[in-house]
From TrEMBL:
Residues 318-511 form the Alpha-L-arabinofuranosidase C-terminal domain. It catalyses: Hydrolysis of terminal non-reducing alpha-L-arabinofuranoside residues in alpha-L-arabinosides. Homohexamer; trimer of dimers. It comes from Koribacter versatilis (strain Ellin345). This is non-reducing end alpha-L-arabinofuranosidase. GO terms for biological process: L-arabinose metabolic process; polysaccharide catabolic process. The lineage of its organism: Bacteria, Pseudomonadati, Acidobacteriota, Terriglobia, Terriglobales. NCBIfam families: TAT_signal_seq (TIGR01409). PANTHER family: ALPHA-L-ARABINOFURANOSIDASE C-RELATED, INTRACELLULAR EXO-ALPHA-L-ARABINOFURANOSIDASE 2. InterPro entries: Alpha-L-AF_C, ASD1_cat, GH, Glyco_hydro_b, TAT_signal, TAT_signal_bac_arc.
Length: 520
């Protein structure tokens, strides 16, 4: 057998501990994410736990979902948390950001009934065993309301008036929310600020917020893709003002991949590629857009380091994933919903491996968005539910959580393809490795749509006694799981032949693989 690619794992070159929180999620209050997705209501015939869809809870426990972001997104800067507490039948109905109250908008839930608020969301987190990450409204609520939301969530039982309100609403015990976003996309929908103005707002909101015995972790609204001006502007403004960077735990970064290669227009919807009808060139161009994430992490990290010399502030990639044009929704009318295919699974494996390779820089990441939305792990409608190929990737990658990331060298032939008649290339194999006790865990993606990789893993510094290989792939690159055919793309696990410090394996075309090795 001729080997064409190698994965060399360097056990004595640890890179840092992989934060479990890079396997986090994002649930914005829009369209079908909550209503019909997570929230079915207590009287629904759909199996539920206090109104929350049981299938979602069960699957999120299985993948060890560590943290969930709520309520947005752009929605966050329109949201008044007080609308979402107390008896549900008395809660006000408001225009939702994603329908803007426009009766002509063809989206569901353009008016928000506020049935899901802080208590329902925190109940969801508790059932899963995940932490909540709440994003505060900086654009349209005063700082006082941010402090009161923290009070409502975190004040000890029987202490403040808001602790009593919380108890009346069902939770005597505080929710102990540690992660607080101060606005969202504050350069855009979150207020159209300049970086210096936003730094001022950040300080106003985050200064002297009562911690109720907790060390709150504030996440500042960071850049969209390569907006280095936003990063340097904020960091410099914060540093000038008595070195107030110590107030910032995380610097948020957003990156969506639009598959623009064939986009012939600037139209917000039509300029994007299609979720299911794509060709091999679209596939590679989307991967290229996703690979940009690595440069964004390195680039912003460098700019942050110019002011934050000790790198106290970490990156929080709290929105990532592909975003296609409308038309592939499993449930018509669900704004922003798209059908995840095998391509999105490979994209997601690639992205998670980028985070795995930068453990000292990335403290948290949140895939946008969990269910019935963009790069969703799950699709649901009434009593239908399915795990998407992206959901399977999160399941396969869970053993990396908390592991020691190891420097790993991937070498393989490049993929060659054509873009509008011009030759183009993309890398042929990449991934990440981590060590937890005696378990060595390697994940990788083969982005080549037609060629397998005849591979060899070389473990430098130890030998393997046994191993398994889990493969997620399908004969058709467009394969996806529907309510009718939920098993078109599912992982398959097999024993792996190991030979001391060398492991041979074939990595099929268009695949995501997870290799678990027991070191001797
Ligand atoms: O995830 C959808 C939207 O994308 C979010 O609301 C916003 O933050 C981003 O622009």
């Amino acid at each position: 057998r001729s080997v064409d690619s190698r994965i060399e794992v360097l056990l004595d070159e640890p890179l840092g501990t992989i934060s479990p929180n890079i396997y986090g999620h994002f649930t914005e209050n829009l369209a079908g994410v909550f209503y019909d997705g997570i929230w079915v209501g207590e009287n629904s015939k759909v199996p539920n736990v206090g109104g929350l869809r049981k299938a979602v809870i069960d699957h999120m426990r299985k993948i060890k979902a560590p943290v969930i972001r709520f309520p947005g997104g752009c929605f966050a800067d329109t949201y008044d948390w007080r609308d979402g507490i107390g008896p549900r039948e008395k809660r006000p109905r408001r225009p939702n950001f994603w329908g803007n109250g426009d009766p002509k908008q063809n989206v569901k839930h353009k008016y928000d009934p506020n049935e899901v608020g802080t208590d329902e969301f925190m109940h969801f987190c508790r059932e899963i065993g995940a932490q909540g990450y709440l994003a505060a409204n900086v654009r349209s609520l005063p700082a006082e309301q941010f402090q009161q939301w923290v009070d409502y969530c975190n004040s000890p039982a029987g202490s403040t008036t808001l602790a009593e309100t919380r108890a009346t609403n069902g939770s005597r015990e505080p929710y102990k929310v540690e992660f607080w976003g101060v606005g969202n996309e504050s350069w855009g929908c979150g207020g159209d600020f300049e970086p210096g103005q936003y730094a001022m707002e950040f300080r106003r909101y985050a200064t002297w917020v009562p911690g109720f015995g907790m060390n709150l972790k504030f996440i500042a609204s960071g850049p969209n893709v390569e907006d280095y001006h936003w990063t340097s502007g904020f960091f410099e403004a914060m540093q000038k003002r008595m070195g107030s960077l110590h107030m910032v735990y995380g610097w948020a970064l957003h990156h969506y991949a639009w598959n623009l290669s064939r986009g012939k227009t600037n139209d917000w919807d039509k300029g994007k590629g299609e979720a299911v009808n794509f060709d091999a060139t679209d596939w590679y161009e989307l991967m290229k857009e996703g690979q940009r994430m690595e440069g964004l992490i390195e680039g912003h990290w460098q700019v942050m380091g110019e002011t934050d010399h000790e790198h106290r502030v970490k990156l929080v990639v709290d929105e990532w994933g592909p975003w296609y044009r409308p038309g592939s929704e499993a449930t018509p009318g669900d704004a922003l919903e798209q059908m995840p295919t095998l391509r999105d699974a490979v994209f997601s494996g690639m992205t998670l491996d980028i985070f795995n390779r930068h453990p000292e820089k990335v403290a948290m990441a949140n895939c946008a968005q969990l269910i019935n939305c963009l790069n969703s792990l799950y699709l649901a409608h009434e009593d239908n539910f399915t795990v998407t190929p992206v959901g399977h990737v999160f399941d396969m990658y869970a053993p990396h959580q908390g592991g020691q990331s190891l420097r790993t060298i991937f070498s393989s032939p490049q993929v060659k393809y054509e873009r509008d008649g011009t030759p183009a290339t993309f890398w042929g194999l990449r991934g990440a490795a981590s060590l937890t006790g005696k378990k060595l865990f390697v994940t990788a993606v083969n982005p080549d749509t037609s060629s397998p990789r005849e591979s060899e893993i070389a473990i430098r510094g130890a030998s393997a006694a046994s191993g398994t290989l889990t493969v997620l792939s399908a004969p058709d690159i467009h394969a996806h799981n529907t309510f009718e055919h939920p098993d078109a793309v599912v992982p398959r696990r097999n024993e792996l032949k190991v030979n001391g410090a060398t492991v041979s394996l074939v990595i099929p075309p268009a695949s995501v693989v997870a290799i678990e090795l027991e070191l001797s």
